[in-house]
Amino acid sequence: MISFERVSKRYLSGRAAVENISFRATAGDFVLLSGHSGAGKSTLLNLLAVIEHPTEGAIRVNGEDVTRLARRALPYYRRTLGLILQDQKLLSDRSVFDNVQLPLAIAGHSRQDAARRAQAALERVGLAARAADMPITLSGGEQQRVAIARAIVAKPLLLLADEPTASLDPAYARDIAELLASFNRAGVTVLVTSHDTALFEPHCTRRLVLDHGRLMQ
Amino acid sequence: MKSWLAQHGQAAARALGRLARAPFGTLLASIVVGVAAVLPAGGWLLLDNIERLADKAAVLPQISVFMAADASADDVAGVQKALRAKVSGVQYVPRKSTLQRIRALEGMGEVLDALPDNPFPDAFIVTPESDDAQALEALKAAFSQLPKVEHVQLDSAWVRRLNAFVTLAQTALWLLAGLLGVALVAVTFNTIRLQILTQQEEVRVSRLLGATTTFIRRPFYWFGTLQGLGGGLVAWALLWLFARALAAPAQELAGLYSLEFALHTLPPQAVLCLLASTAALGWLGAAASLWRNLAD
Questions:
Q1: Which pLDDT belongs to residue B285?
Q2: Alpha-helix runs per DSSP H in B199-267
Q3: Residue A78 touches partner B, C-beta closer than 8 Å
Q4: 3-state SS, residue A9
Q5: What is the DSSP secondary structure assignment for residue A188, as one 8-state letter?
Q6: Is-contact A153 A145, C-beta < 8 A?
């Protein structure tokens, strides 16, 4: 399903964020990307989500090189992804419910269908009761759950989570890890970056370790 | 199609929400747009009223036909008959009555007494049905050919002057409208630029979630269009107030010239045109701003 082929990303300064990365992941995998801070974990996810472009190499998803996607095709590719970013990026002027149904509004779902799915996603992460609240009134863990609900609401094939448990209490972190594992058990391919390997190791089917932009295992 | 309409509905609702969340800013922007729009629209309304007034005063174009001094009563009767054959509005002014009228003017009696004979000719005042300059010229030429007609005077200069003034004013109005249209586009351009700046995070998140450029731009287009429409409504309200305030003085002025005249406000078609124009200019300002400030 996912194939990184000799992928490198170098910045104008000459610094390499990732260097000559090659790996494959099949549908249904739970891939844990670990490594110290600055090892290149987030860059790898950004490259897969086409937030950044590689300097060299190809990244194939279901056989298609996503680094060569036409500008017009990129939004439709991103709709097949569920993105959970480090800083959640919830919209502060919209309710929890509106944040969760945003991907569906973007994809052109009817209002009724979007409402039904958003409600189901919020129930899945245990926040149905907070649907009308604004994100700022939620705790860090709850905001992360809203971000997860938003990521899974459109039923993505691939869930990308960048440090989803960073700065969360251990109890909240375990909840999030379990939640991601439950989506994986339901058939969603999951790629998680985390420096907390112990938290995700029980759930992952593959573990990749990055060190200074290079794949160690 | 249904989905497309629904997405437009949602974008319009979001734009309305943003406008409603900042009522003071929205009001100020609408006033700026409205004031810019009220100048050409008010000018158009003024010209429309001037044209209506001119139509009412259209009885004024006249042709004066002066007989030769030696014209007999039969000659006068013949010319009168010939004039009536062409135009219904013919008034005969005998030379005696002209003499009496001029003599009644202060100081003129002594002057006339010094003359050996009545210096005034018999005359006709002809009021043509048409105020068309070419038709008037044709009548003048035809009357000049009548026997014992000494001189024909066409009093249509004022029609040409008025027409020239209206044409000049209309041209100036179009130029003003163009200029203020550019100003209106510039106002919307800046408002949308600020909107883009304040909603940068939303734009980024939407892109990450798979939003197309069209989806991202749609609410901004609606914002510009609705702001333009709001400005149009302000302009309409201002024009209505001005027309109400000026109605009585205008009627009084017209009364001094023995004219019945009521100041007209914008007709429904013109109101629609005004609202559509301001909305379209708002859309244009948004388009320019998105092109400049929101890259794909």
A1: 94
A2: 200-208, 213-256
A3: yes
A4: strand
A5: -
A6: no
Q: Is B208 in contact with A111 (Cβ distance < 8 A)?
A: no
Confidence of residue B59 (pLDDT cuts 50, 70, 90): low
B126-163 pLDDT tens trace: 988 777 778 888 888 899 999 999 999 887 666 667 77
Contact status of A79 with chain B (Cβ, < 8 Å): yes
By the 8 A CB rule, do B208 and A51 touch?
Answer: yes
Residue with tokens 């005359």: B123
The pLDDT assigned to A95 comes to 94
Into how many domains does chain B fold?
2
Task: Report the gap between the CA of A78 and the closest CA in chain B (Å).
Answer: 5
Q: Do B97 and B180 belong to one domain?
A: no
For chain B, the average pLDDT equals 86
Q: What is the pLDDT, as a whole number, of residue B289?
A: 93
Nearest to A78 among B7, B202, B208 (CB): B208
A87: nearest CA in chain B?
B205
Report the distance separating Cα B79 and Cα B75, nearest Å.
6
Beta carbons of B15 and B223 less than 8 angstroms apart: yes
- Rg (Cα) of chain B, in Å, rounded? 32
Work out the minimum CA distance from A137 to partner chain B, whole angstroms: 19
A209 in contact with B, Cβ within 8 Å? no
What residues make up the domain containing B19? Answer: 2-57+161-293
Per the CB < 8 A criterion, the answer to whether B285 and B187 are in contact is yes
**Last residue in a domain, options B130, B155, B180:** B155
Q: β-pairing, B123-127 with A30-35?
A: unpaired
| Same domain membership, residue B80 and residue B43 | no
The mean pLDDT of B208-231, rounded to a whole number, is 93
Pair (B235, B98) in one structural domain: no
Name which of B7, B210, B212 is nearest A103 (Cβ-Cβ): B210
- Where does the pLDDT of residue B213 fall: very low under 50, low under 70, confident under 90, or very high at 90 and above? very high
For B26-73, give the DSSP string.
HHHHHHHHHHHHHHHHHHHHHHHHHHHHHHHTTT--EEEEEEPTT--H
